[in-house]
């Protein structure tokens, strides 16, 4: 299209200089220049193409695509934040919205191909990081024919029975599309601790890099012995492995996202993001800078492990809504050594009956006290039905467990916060993240994600490379 604009500085975005668009024409007016009625023809179109596609420079935007059952949004945001450290303009899509740089282009759950195309068609975007969800893949496929990096975090039982996907193996095939779409020169970043994800490495045409929470993972060991690339959590460090060498990025306790190293699944998310960036040529220093300035906060990761200090106790908000994410949150809760652990639990109404029973079983193992609530939108399930199934799961594990059912989410959250004893941790797994955060902020929290960790002189070691003990 040909666009007529009025602006004091054509080199800057219109929103920064109060510029305006006067007219949008169906096509640029090249004909009068190429074939003038009078005068010398000029190849104006050639100059435009040279500007759009400079000689010797890449003609496509690098694409990093992220999928998985849990952790997609956090990993996408962290990956985008790391790439911002390179000075490039990053466009990214998440369940919270579509962003270009720090500008929210469109709010909403934007993890499908239409939102991705918005990023890929923007001429200012230099790197695209795209959260790629199951629903969008099933409805419309991918927004691109090939990517540079494809990250698959995990595959777990969620959304089964929807869209003709009835087994976890079928779900793995859906998510493997992200890995299989990577260019031969690119990298598929795969979770070596998840057999369904690790197996995707046999089907891709690209290079493969694995990440693992276990440095002695046999697949990682074999892969790195053959000169392959990997990232592991070893001796308290997030580290890159390449052959016999270990490149230590940073200690987990110094990475805010991991909540002082107490959240194992956040360490795994950080490993995946770091490996994706490293595989695409981002330096260790830039990765370290990104990790050290990214937090599980309401501003950077709303609804993902947002921890609030309420003075007498703490509250944690996380959008865990399936068994795998309950287990992930449970890893953090079990590392919480003070006071009573209270859970405000529920789940989306369109999940299977057995999924709700499983949520109840897990909650009984994680929390000292449970309040069962339901979503406002029960997604066609009768009111109270999901709560009864969760209660059934609780009693199967602990027949004498004293739980409480309060279907209204707001009332359930306030009850948990009002009755929490000193030193307690109240874990809220809400339908509405914004509502839960508002209820907590109304109580004037002292701070968010405040976990003090002692300084360690070992952090200096993270700046250097050491020969790997992983054989």
Describe the structure in your own words:
The longest helix is centred in the middle third of the chain and has 16 residues, at 264-279. This protein starts with a strand and ends with a strand. The protein is built from 16 helices and 21 strands. The strands form three sheets. Strands 6-5-4-7-3-8-9-10-11-12-13-21 form a twelve-stranded mixed sheet, with helices on both faces. The radius of gyration is 25 Å and the shape is globular. The chain is 33% helix and 22% strand. It folds into three domains: 2-52, no CATH class; 63-292, Mur-like, catalytic domain (UDP-N-acetylmuramoyl-L-alanine:D-glutamate ligase, 3-Layer(aba) Sandwich); 311-445, Alpha-Beta Complex (Protein-Tyrosine Phosphatase, Chain A). The chain is α/β, with parallel strands linked by helices and 471 residues long.
